[in-house]
Amino acid sequence: MTTTAPSVYEIADILRGAHTAVRCYGWSQTEPPAGRGPVHALTAIGIGTVGWGYDPRTILNPHDEALYEATVARVARHLDLHDTDALEAFTAWHDDPERTTDDILHALQDTARGLEGYRTDRVITPTARDVTSVHQGVLLTCYGEDSNYMAIGHITPTLMVTASAECNLHLTGEPLASGWSQDRIERRVWHTWAVHWRDQRGEIWWDVDHDRRTPGAEPVTILPGD
Q: Which residues are paired to 134 by β-bridges?
């Protein structure tokens, strides 16, 4: 199998997925059993690369491995880690006893933002034309391979799940989180703040985990995918 060099936007998408994984599961400096508890940042990058079913014990195919390694290298470059082996350098930084969850979240998100071409003059306030669709009066964006949902505004978990379920049915013809109870899905919902902007191609990107004091930040509600 031949591979091509990943684009900066592919890497940014992976980093966004990794950020969501850490935000959803929590962060750990050790590798937990697959799907159980907080995740190591390298596991989070694996989730961003291949989806929520990623298992660090599984060997990636050449295409996904190239994406994974390029993503780790980009984060190491952003952190000014100059070791010739990006994986070893990032792991050493990651495993520093003084490292914090916020350090990890910022490293993933700030690297993505740099790749996406963030500038303050590109910040926007999203409207209905800037999102995937509108359901139950909620502006919803569906993103990532695992159908994460983001709503503009801080809304109740019940409304978030109801609107996202309608959107998911509209997009895929499938129910949202099949086999999960409404209550279990609602417990995955969280509120945060996001900054949206357009890149030089006109595509919309965003940062999450800001607060109301951040210039251009809008309240958003997040429902992670399966």
A: 139
**Which residues make beta-bridge pairs with 204?**
198
Phi/psi region, residue 97 (left: phi>0; alpha: psi -120 to 50; beta: rest), is: alpha
Instruction: Place 1 in a pLDDT band, splitting at 50, 70 and 90.
Output: very low
CA distances to 126, 148, 222 from 156, in Å = 20, 17, 11
Distance between CA 78 and CA 113 in Å, rounded? 11
Single out the residue of 50, 49, 23, 55 nearest to residue 36, CA to CA.
55
Note if the pTM is more than 0.90: no
DSSP assigned state of 39: B
Helical axes 8-25 vs 101-116, angle rounded to 10°: 160
| Alpha helix segments (H runs only) across 32-85 | 41-50, 62-78
**Contacts with 24 (C-beta within 8 Å, 6 or more apart), sequence order:** 188, 224
